[in-house]
Specification:
It contains ten helices and twelve strands. It has 310 residues and is an alpha/beta fold. The chain has two domains: 233 residues, Aldolase class I (TIM Barrel, Alpha-Beta Barrel), CATH 3.20.20.70; 63 residues, Orthogonal Bundle (Arc Repressor Mutant, subunit A). The longest helix is centred in the C-terminal third of the chain and has 18 residues. It starts with a strand and ends with a strand. Bound molecules: iron/sulfur cluster (SF4). The site of iron/sulfur cluster (SF4) has 10 residues, from loops.
Length: 310
């Protein structure tokens, strides 16, 4: 049983990814309204050894010495990994002891304005920072930052990081209708992206319930429209967004098939994948929706977590 590593889990962007949690739930410099981990309980920019370096590297060694190599080791998890003051040491440990393994860092990017923090992660292979807002008004409404953070500094940190970092930077822009999808914000985001010059831009939207209620994902058409407006090469829509026209029928089919299956017997995710031939990301999305709607529930059994009708 591990406390600080999880997976490996299949990831749309990283293949089989072994996750490393460097902060507890939920320590972050932002409190994004769409956060699937929930509300930020410690909103801070203060760095410390939130989880102990020694314990993290012990778990990593235990796993990596006895299991097939994952495609990536990814610092992600319950909050902002750059808040852990030993992130550079954990990265160094991996690179010294498992030099063939690739390391990715999922970060909100707000701490990259600090040149010492940028220096700590130069050994990473891939960094996936976020930028959802290019004006303080939207930054405050959507990302609800710690009070000292300003969007200009955030953008400048990303520009500086791009100049110094030799690996790939995949900039994630999370589109949330009613928050950052209006023309003025998209136009400001476009300017910021051109200044940052990431390797890729990934447009994403809501896939699971967020930290607050009443949020809606952008449709495929909205994301396509924003992609055209941003007009930056290497921009991909990575969201599992559906066409507004096709969404309903498609969802109803899959949902009823899942409900029918688990009405006969509780099933784990691997059971459902085998029975329904669904990709795990897609399956997770339906399970999340059915759970949020109160139609299904979970319980632990010998083979792990089982889904059953409520
Ligand atoms: S930065 Fe990431 S972890 Fe932090 S609140 Fe936003 S979505 Fe959640």
């Amino acid at each position: 049983m591990f406390n600080y590593i999880f997976g490996p889990v299949p990831s749309r962007r990283l293949g089989m990814s072994l996750g490393v949690d460097l902060v507890p739930r939920k320590v972050c410099s932002l409190d994004c309204v769409y956060c699937e981990v929930g509300i930020t309980t410690k909103l801070t920019t203060e760095r410390m050894e939130y989880v102990p370096y020694e314990k993290v590297v012990k778990e990593l060694s235990e796993y990596l010495d006895h299991s097939p190599a994952p495609d990536f080791i990814t610092f992600s998890g319950y909050g902002e990994p750059l808040l852990n003051s030993r992130i550079g040491d954990v990265l160094k440990f991996i690179k010294e002891n498992y030099p063939r393994l690739k390391v990715a860092i999922l970060t909100n990017g707000t701490l990259l304005s600090d040149k010492n923090i940028r220096a700590e992660i130069m050994q990473a292979d891939l960094v996936l920072p976020s930028i959802d807002a290019a004006t303080d008004k939207v930054f405050k409404k959507l990302n609800r930052p710690e009070k000292h953070l300003k969007v200009k500094k955030h953008i400048q940190g990303l520009i500086d990081f791009r100049k110094e970092f030799k690996g790939e930077i995949c900039l994630e822009v999370f589109i949330l209708p009613g928050y950052n999808d209006h023309n003025e914000e998209v136009s400001e985001l476009k300017k910021a992206i051109r200044e940052i010059q990431p390797t890729f831009v990934h447009l994403n939207t809501l896939d699971r319930p967020g930290a607050i209620e009443g949020l809606h994902p952008a449709t495929k058409e909205q994301l396509e429209d924003i992609k055209n407006k941003i007009d930056f090469e290497n921009t991909l829509i990575v969201a599992a967004a559906h066409s507004s026209k096709k969404n309903k029928a498609y969802r109803a089919d899959k949902e009823s098939a899942i409900l029918e299956t688990i009405s006969r017997r509780p099933c784990t995710i691997p059971d459902l994948r085998n029975i329904m031939s669904l990709h795990i990301n897609e399956l997770n999305k339906y399970l999340d929706i059915l759970e949020a709607e109160g139609k299904i529930t979970t319980e632990f059994g010998e083979r792990g977590m089982f889904y059953r009708l409520k």
